[in-house]
From TrEMBL:
GO BP terms in the entry: DNA-templated transcription
CDD domains: PBP2_CrgA_like_8
Name of this chain's protein: LysR family transcriptional regulator
Organismal lineage: Bacteria, Pseudomonadati, Pseudomonadota, Betaproteobacteria, Burkholderiales
Pfam families from the UniProt entry: HTH_1, LysR_substrate
InterPro entries per record: LysR-type_TF_proteobact-type, LysR_HTH_N, LysR_subst-bd, WH-like_DNA-bd_sf, WH_DNA-bd_sf
Species annotation: Rugamonas apoptosis
Protein family: Belongs to the LysR transcriptional regulatory family.
PROSITE patterns to which the protein is assigned, alphabetical: HTH_LYSR (PS50931)
């Protein structure tokens, strides 16, 4: 028999004072009430109640067990109430993973709007180059750039992660505009530290021999490369979505648009869940509205 249900019936018998009163409370027969009590006593190997024709009384073990049952049943009700509350509205901690550049430059500022809309939600935003295991590490969702591996995760397409080549007007005034990909050999190009040597600045339709000399400034952080470009240090190639404000304001100027590498796909991924929590659902809707196609 369901042990938790038997514990409820046992507590009901003690509270109501008789099997008959408990039977009415739980809308079952007195025989079924007796079976629940007998099941508990068999599992415990001890008598919980002594009964006569006129009265019933708890044994010493029964009295102690009754108090523990009340505590357990209270915790169960508390858990049920908490779960119901979480399902009735967006609340709780949302754990999200994203690439560093997109997460810091695009997602983090947008989350200010999301949190304003959902005051009972908090967000733990994990930024890094590694691909987290969403299920094993307890993440609610993640942003992924590039081709996806086959998995059981739900993948929702976002705007493509397109690249842009650009520089500050101050740099172009000093060094001139590159008109062809080959011209980059005469310019200062800012490198991402972990680009593979043979793939650095490989442009669409470009001759692989027409690559810039080793960069005088490299970094493993896109924010650092952007700041260096804004300071006029050189030409940078980064995601357009990360540089959109600087491009719109004219702080950075587009270059060699016909040679920009093909855009990579970007997805929002999350576990498949038949009963998704409102916090995850609200986050998915927000991201799709803000960054969807």
């Amino acid at each position: 028999m369901d042990k938790l249900r038997s514990m409820e019936v046992f507590a009901g018998v003690v509270g109501a004072g008789s099997f008959t009163a408990a039977a009415r409370q739980f809308e079952m027969s007195t025989v079924m009430v007796g079976k629940h009590i007998a099941s508990l006593e068999q599992q415990l190997g001890a008598c919980l109640l002594t009964r006569t024709t006129r009265r019933q009384a708890l044994t010493e073990i029964g009295a102690r067990y009754h108090q523990q049952c009340l505590q357990i049943l209270a915790l169960v009700r508390q858990a049920d109430t908490g779960a119901e509350a979480m399902r009735s509205g967006a609340r709780g901690t949302l754990k999200v993973s994203a690439p560093v550049a997109f997460g810091s430059e695009c997602l983090a500022p947008a989350l200010a709007d999301y949190l304003a809309q959902h005051p009972e939600v908090s967000v733990d935003l994990d930024l890094g180059p590694r691909v987290v295991n969403i299920v094993d590490e307890g993440f609610d969702a993640a942003i992924r750039i590039g081709a996806l591996d086959d998995s059981a995760l739900v993948a929702r397409p976002l705007r493509a992660y397109g690249m842009v080549i650009c520089a500050a007007p101050s740099y172009l005034e000093r060094h001139g505009w590159p008109r062809t990909a080959a011209d980059l050999a005469q310019h200062q190009c800012l490198d991402f530290l972990h680009w593979k040597r043979l793939l650095r600045w490989r442009l669409d339709g470009d001759d692989q021999q027409c690559t810039p000399p080793p960069s005088r400034f490299r970094s493993n952080n896109g924010q650092a490369l952007k700041r260096a470009a804004l300071a006029g240090l050189g030409i940078v190639m980064q995601a357009e979505i990360v540089l959109q404000e600087e491009l719109r304001s004219g702080q950075l100027v587009r270059l060699l648009q016909e040679h920009v590498p093909p855009a990579r796909p970007m997805h929002l991924v999350y576990p498949r869940d038949r009963q998704a929590t409102p916090k995850r659902t609200s986050f998915i809707e927000f991201v799709m509205e803000r960054f969807g196609k």
